[in-house]
Automatic annotation (TrEMBL):
Species this protein is from: Actinomadura sediminis
Protein name (Swiss-Prot/TrEMBL): SIR2 family protein
Highest taxon of source: Bacteria
Amino acid sequence: MEDRDWDRLIRQLRAGQVAPFLGAGACHGTLEMAGALAGRWADEYDYPFEDRFDLARVMRYVAVLEDDLTYVKGEFLQRHFTGITAPNDPDDPHVALSRFPLPLYLTTNYDDLLVRSLRAAGREPRRVLCPWYDGAPYDPDAFLPPPGGSPADEPVVYHLHGHDGHPESLVLTEDDYIQFLVALIEDRNKEEDTSARVSLVPPAVQEALARRPLLFVGYSLRDWTFQVLLQGLVKGLPTTHRRSHISVQMLPLPDGATDAQRRNAEDYLDRYFADLKVSVYWGSARDFFRELNRRAGGTP
């Protein structure tokens, strides 16, 4: 990212004009990462295949053995999302983003760290589930601005992959990811009928994607979730509706990556994003917001 990229992003954040997406890397240092969790479950259930650090595949194996997917998801939450200490470091992604007057936050994480950070910042967030599965709670009015108040005072935190308040809502196994993708494609191809119809991408979210610059935090180049978000949500928009700028905080390349490997990665991004103007920060989410806070003078 160049100086002008940082300056533009800070102005947009201060104006409440950014739509942020938070991925697993935003929780690094607070929660265990997927690979470590997969290894623990693989050991416990004697996972027989080589991809033992692929959480979605390992958890599908566990769910088949237990023959109770909701039970497995509940156990997963109980083991890994209980008793988490809310972050208070200003460079933590949740804390940093909660200080900007954004009306909508999108996340593929299950935790409530963003909600807790928003409350600590004096705001009243509304936690909303993406209805990707049958029977998901759905309120068509959940995205309406609060009566008499500012949307930034009561922002929506939209959990695309479920959250820890509803175990059945988690997009956790490989089958869940496939079902989510199928539901996203079907949703995109639906005929518009009424504003109250169940939709994975409600009008308020569609409007944010179309009118606001996007900021992806905590994703990696090989992250399938990141690819689905881009292909299913961003690139699904008509070209004339896309904003001209996306900022991506990418997890670092492996230790020891050569200059040639870095150039290859950058060339890949240029080709992949093609018609989108993208600025990329190579580093951890915490490093990204440490730099942003430094450039912003430490305050929104």
